[in-house]
Write a structure and sequence with these properties.
Number of strands: 7
Helix content: 40-55%
CATH class: Alpha Beta
Mean pLDDT: 93
Shape: globular
Largest sheet: 5 strands, parallel
CATH architecture: 3-Layer(aba) Sandwich
Strand content: 5-15%
Low-confidence stretches: none
Distance between the termini: 12 Å
Number of domains: 1
Length: about 190
């Protein structure tokens, strides 16, 4: 049976980079965040999100992620309601995707809130990607149209690495890309032997 390996990490840790390295090794990778975006813009989910956030939630037909972030990161109740709409649908898509990749030795399920959502319990092993907070903030500032305080607020709303590390089977410190790549290769070799 195909083993599901969870891949997670805080904002700006470099989960996507690590996921790409696994993909380069031929491992099927499911990016939950990308699926959540697609689902959030679907005809089925659009009215549900509009009832939660109002009409401002979409700009020119596209989900305004910055607006949603500004709403949910100061309102845990609203974040929970958003997750109740999106996450069961992402899980259903993952299950369909997993059937397609049932011949693989293992697959990677990349999800930002793998621990927070409890879905890490369905994973055979979990890989946590870490990086020092200042590096993470710097990466997010370069990548997103946002400000320092917003990034710090988003980090403070996620579980800390101190909580996640004991729950993880592998920890990749993602500071130097060549070192990160070699850590991925080591983990890949271990997982192929299991």
């Amino acid at each position: 049976m195909t083993k599901v390996i969870g891949l997670t990490g805080g904002i700006g840790s470099g989960k996507t980079t690590v996921a790409r390295f696994f993909s380069d090794l031929g491992v099927p990778v499911f990016i939950a965040d990308n699926e959540a975006k697609t689902i959030s813009e679907s005809e089925e989910v659009r009215p549900l999100l509009q009832s939660l956030f109002g009409d401002n939630v979409y700009k020119a037909g596209k989900l305004d992620r910055k607006y949603i972030a500004s709403q949910v990161f100061s309102n845990p109740d609203l974040l929970q309601k958003l997750n109740q709409v999106v996450h069961p649908r992402v899980q259903k898509k993952f299950e369909q995707w997993l059937k397609i990749h049932s011949k693989a030795k293992y697959v990677i399920k990349e999800a930002a809130i793998l621990f927070e959502s409890g879905s890490y319990k369905q994973c055979f092993k979990v890989i946590l990607v870490t990086a020092p907070q200042e590096i993470r903030i710097e990466r997010v500032l370069k990548r997103d149209e946002t400000d320092y305080d917003s990034v710090v607020k988003r980090i403070s709303n996620q579980w800390s690495d101190e909580i996640k590390i004991p729950l993880s089977d592998f920890v990749i410190e993602n500071v130097n890309l060549s070192h990160t790549k070699s850590q991925v290769l080591e983990i890949h070799n271990v997982l192929n032997k299991i």
